[in-house]
Design goal:
homodimer; alpha+beta; Jelly Rolls; Glycosyltransferase; 4 domains; 7-stranded antiparallel beta sheet; Alpha-rhamnosidase (chains A, B); Bac_rhamnosid6H (chains A, B); Rhamnosid-like_N_bacteroidetes (chains A, B); 6hp_glycosidase-like_sf (chains A, B)
Chain lengths: 720, 720
């Protein structure tokens, strides 16, 4: 094990050295994310018409001050690259004009740049031998220091400096404004001639630019995109299309469309036009899979693979909801992507980009995406981000934005201190027929309680002692009121809502299943909820993969993996049986044929590639392989494998310091650990055995085996 | 009089008809102003180095929804021009693509456009026969309406709609982003050859683009700008310069600089270069003078003319502080420009543009320009704007921004409820040696009290009853505390400050003179202040025209015009005697020669053309001609002429419904009124006489004579 340890130490030392001398583009933290999200979220069209989001879009700060104090070993030449109009100062003294290189003298010196840029994010790239731009620079959008009539600076500065934002823009020639995703050419699997054009099948759901190759002639070309063949053929009702009026009489050209989601492309053109071939450029975020899962059940393996593909398609500039529709960042959808990410990619920049784009700027004038629950998921997303990655810096930088968002929420409580929808507040919960949003819904209080717990934790991280007390107390109060107000002893469940201060008769799954994995119930309440709600067919069923995510999570959290395996095979397996090549926004097994494609009153309104359809990634990693961090950044963690009826499974789960590998059959478990301290928790008929194992019995046939840093444990046991 | 009345009625009817059918570019209100101010305020350079403001610069909303419901008499074709990416809907139904013309069907229909634009302000220009874009359209940046899974819209909208912003962009081909000021060519009055170039004198302070005509050759051209000859010649210390590396070997070219302020231009060039001539393009805001003043004293007339020129030079995209430096919008400086404007231009768009640019967007994270007093002047500016123009619409649109700014202030009071500088708060008051900013300064409380009174008034306008009560009470409390806390009975004056809750021994002019024209003092206190402060040479003197403005106003308000005439001749006349062609940022008669040009520790740091130097415009209009609105928009007004030692004066003061003309000698007064109801108030030894006069004696030789709407009064009297 020594060898691995040394290697990792060297890697992390290496990373530090690189960070010190590697120049990268920097900006005001959060601003590139806001700018890029404006660009991305305003790319949607519906039947050729621009279809932007309805919520507020923010902007970057247009005037930003950057500085860092360097100890320069020997005079050096420093290149400057800037997005915007700028000035440069060394030790506060301005340099005339817009220099592209400067000379930094030896010794301790402060280098400052101030940049104005309206259309793009003010950004700099500074590259010398020791003087480079990176996230250790300090930035502000507001300098609260001034001079008196004699030119003397004020004695009290009120300026707030944050650490600069950065990502992977490590070349002077690719500033943030030139950001693009990667592309790769792909060919159709089938092209059919139609009466007036071509019908092209790319074999599976995909995303990118359609290329019309060898286009010649004069007239109109219409391109109808379909996630299903039916949609591509339904020229009057398909959701996306392009009309192109071309005039290419002389010679053949290749035309490339804007990005679209499709499997089928139906191209119709006037008689004067010819077209050789249709291909595409697949567009994607280049990020590698770190998690993996294989098991004895081929259908589950297929479900895992299609989940991965679905997730990749929706992991782009940001975690978006669906690639055809809405192509927007919805907080509730993104929250699930965050969780899946921790079990597949562990790509933190995608999480923070999305969190920052969602949060935008102050003032808070509406719930996130206008949805009350979506505001709370944002807090939950931060809670998880910190738990999985241990990134304190992010909390430190953005705690003020957490505070102002929470103040917005707290100011919207009703007279009894409960969240209730005011005009302009969308209480979403789920797409479900007849679901009541009236009054104070229990589900929203539960999410607020968890958000307040998150605030208390983060207040602790930034040493805001008043915040720790205030948010902690608010969380405790609200949690106790959940039970004094919503718990119905007779029904052994939380009721759906209070209307005019009175419990409604309605019990829904939402608050009850979240209560399970939030661990808000006593053991007795848990069993009541399981019997009376989760496994009770009389309670309104959930039809969206979005809420199935939480429903199955709650069942898993109660050890019902076997039941979940069969549900997964029914539900996701059901979509596969209908030929799905990615997972859908919604699936109702009772529907037939093209009925499956309709939603929102439109025949092809449904998205057939929705991020929230990929939840098996999360369930299989967290509740089958059973890997969960116990403290921030996997400093400690648990591995609690559960086969759920499978004969064996073999996989890995990414963590900051490496991948945790788990193999589990009914008789053998092997876990390869990481830098943190892990514990393998298993149920076994007999005491688990193996070389040099530290086995502790917890009673009830439950055993814990320590996993030392960077070690592997191999266990023989007898599955219950 | 009947004739004039009918004419005016027709004019105003005409204006309405025009407004209905005239298309103009529209945008989210306040956004063009923010965008333009970013552009303008980021044009300053200091010795060739970009010199942006240090405070926060905001941005426009990038995604804006526009709509209006029209009664269309007959189907019509409508042109659309849009800045940005957009969609168009008629009655909520999208039209494919980016149409440039649409057909509006006859009948009642809603036309909506939604526009995304990052670099410029989303703006539209819609022009049909009856369907046109104007400020009657409604706009929002945040649509709080959504759909359920069936596509049905929510029943409760939380969307806030404002009326669209507009100005004078009445042609489809000149969208807001193409805004420029007007220019006109001007010639130098003198050009001297120097050892290595030319020294050019434009005869007076000016602003614009320098044109290097007939430039040929290869090498460096350096242009040194000077508001004084000394500055232009001081190549090492002049404040602004340009270095141009040119390569024009073949033929003569004309090069045009960026805009600068100067009277002298010193051009030096390498020996390989030749230059025929230097001229300029004078840049200005085309806005006509409506006010006027002529009198028996030639020096006062000169002062008035140079004040006008100074004011015009600083009235540009916005009311700026100075044309050389800072070329920024400072609230305290702009406040004085607003007041001067009411007596010269009466150009409301310049006032509202400036108020909106200053206010920017929420959240408020700092005082305006970081200065506490400057925040308060903004409220005072709104108070005056409403009084002079009667524009309720502006208050209705921007009351929320007034509220959030006031909440920021109220949250920064100390434990005793007084304003005291926190880190980041610049307590400016004035440029004055040794002026203490410690503790709670009386001057700031006075400004806050007046700001609170403004809030109470505006709350009334927008029917915010709670606001009327809350702000009214806060204003009353603070006003009474001004006297319980700061008034010193022995000194018969307000003391300068409280430090640690105790009165300091210091008395300054600031709070005392503002107390006079705010009318906060009793008659006895007023006399005490006049004797012990205003006319007391032991109290630290004021050296900036900025504070001279208020000092002289206070004296005028107490009837000391004669004293003010002599002060004006000393102070402004003093600058004229030194050859000033525009009025300065600061003037100290004890300085000599080029000493006058230094400030902020730099030999040419002082601005020689500063808006606040033009205050005679205001004093002569308001306190000599004596014209003041008594109720919003001059519905009622007073004319209270005071010759201040002059033999006669003749002038006019603009009002919304026309100009009020005043002639006054020691024996005769003529006033031509406007639509409102005026009163002429005069002091006379004998009862004033004239045809059909309605004379009322107020005792103490004071008489009031009614001025009926659109009438002229001619009065014989005997000046006291």
């Amino acid at each position: 094990m020594k060898k691995i340890f040394i290697l990792l130490t060297m890697l992390s030392l290496g990373a530090e050295l690189t960070a010190q001398s590697r120049a990268t583009w920097i900006w005001y933290p959060g601003d590139f994310e806001v700018w890029l999200s404006n660009r991305m979220q305003n790319r949607r069209t519906e039947r050729g018409s621009f279809f932007p989001p309805f919520w507020r879009m923010d902007s970057h700060f247009v005037l930003v001050d950057f500085h860092k104090v360097f100890e320069v070993p020997a005079e050096e030449q420093v290149e400057l690259h800037v997005e915007g109009q700028y000035n440069v100062k060394i030790d506060g003294k301005g340099i005339s004009g817009y220099p592209r290189t400067i000379t930094m003298p030896a010794g301790k010196h402060k280098l400052s740049l101030k940049v104005f840029c309206q259309d793009r994010v003010p950004a700099i790239f500074v590259k010398g031998k020791s003087v480079v731009s990176d996230s250790s620079w300090l930035v502000t959008y507001e300098d609260k220091e001034w001079i008196d009539a004699s030119g003397k600076a004020s004695d009290q500065s009120g300026t707030t400096w944050l650490s600069a934002g950065s990502w992977n823009f490590d070349s002077s020639s690719t500033p943030p404004s030139k950001f693009t995703l990667a592309t790769t050419p792909q060919q159709a699997v089938k092209t059919e001639k139609t009466a007036d054009g071509l019908l092209v099948d790319f074999g599976k759901e995909t995303f990118g630019y359609v290329k019309l190759e060898g286009l010649k002639g004069q007239g109109r070309v219409s391109v109808y995109y379909g996630e299903s063949k039916e949609e591509a053929l339904a020229t009057e009702t398909c959701e996306t299309l392009d009309h192109l009026d071309i005039n290419l009489p002389a010679k053949k050209y290749t035309l490339t469309s804007l990005t679209k989601a499709f499997r089928f492309v139906n191209i119709k053109f006037d008689s004067g036009i010819s077209l050789d071939k249709v291909s595409m450029l697949y567009e994607y975020l280049p990020v590698a899979d770190r998690g993996d899962f294989r098991c004895s059940d081929a259908e589950i393996n297929k479900i895992y693979d299609i989940s991965k593909y679905t997730f990749h398609l929706n992991t782009r500039e940001f975690f978006i909801d669906g690639i055809k529709r809405d192509r927007w960042i919805w907080s509730g959808d993104a929250y699930q992507s965050f969780l899946m990410n921790y079990y597949l990619l562990f790509d933190s920049p995608s999480v923070t980009r999305t969190l920052l784009a969602l949060r935008g700027k102050d003032p808070v004038s509406s719930h996130m995406n206008t949805i009350m629950d979506y505001t709370f998921y944002w807090f939950l997303g931060i809670s998880d981000y910190y738990l999985y990655t241990g990134d304190k810096k992010f909390i430190e930088q953005f705690y003020p934005r957490m505070q102002s968002l929470m103040e917005f929420c707290l100011a919207r409580r009703n007279a009894s201190g409960l969240m209730e929808g005011l005009p302009g507040d969308w209480v979403f919960i789920d797409w479900a027929d007849g679901l009541s949003k009236q009054g104070a819904v229990s589900f929203e209080q539960l999410l607020l309680a968890r958000s307040l717990e998150t605030m208390a934790t983060c207040a602790g991280i930034v040493n805001d002692k008043d915040g720790v007390t205030k948010y902690g107390k608010l969380a405790e109060d609200l949690k106790s009121r959940l039970f004094s107000v919503y718990w119905n002893e007779q029904k052994q469940a939380l009721v759906h809502s209070l209307v005019d201060g009175k419990q409604t008769d309605n019990v829904t799954r939402y608050a009850n299943m979240f209560g399970i994995f939030f661990d808000y119930f006593s053991e007795q309440q848990k069993q009541g909820v399981k019997k009376n709600v989760l496994l009770n067919d009389k309670i309104q069923k959930i039809t969206t993969p979005y809420m199935r995510f939480y429903e199955l999570e709650a069942l898993c959290a109660m050890g019902e993996q076997k039941h979940v395996t069969s549900e997964m095979k029914d539900y996701w397996g059901g979509m596969l049986k209908l030929g799905a090549t990615s997972f859908w926004e919604e699936y109702d097994p009772s529907k037939k044929g093209a009925e499956h494609y309709s939603m929102y009153g439109r025949p092809f309104g449904k998205s057939l590639c929705h991020a929230w359809g990929a939840s098996p990634l999360y369930l299989l990693g967290k509740y089958y392989l059973g890997v969960k961090p116990l403290s921030p950044g996997y400093a400690t963690y648990v591995v609690e494998p559960a086969l759920g009826g499978l004969k064996w499974m073999d996989g890995k789960v990414p963590a900051p310091s490496g991948d945790i590998k788990v193999y589990c059959s009914t008789t053998e478990i092997r876990v390869q650990g990481i830098a943190g301290r892990g514990v393998l928790r298993i149920k076994s008929k007999t005491k688990p055995s193996g070389d040099r194992l530290d086995v502790k019995s917890l009673g009830s046939q439950i055993y814990e085996i320590g996993i030392a840093p960077h070690s592997t444990v191999k266990v023989k046991y007898s599955a219950l």
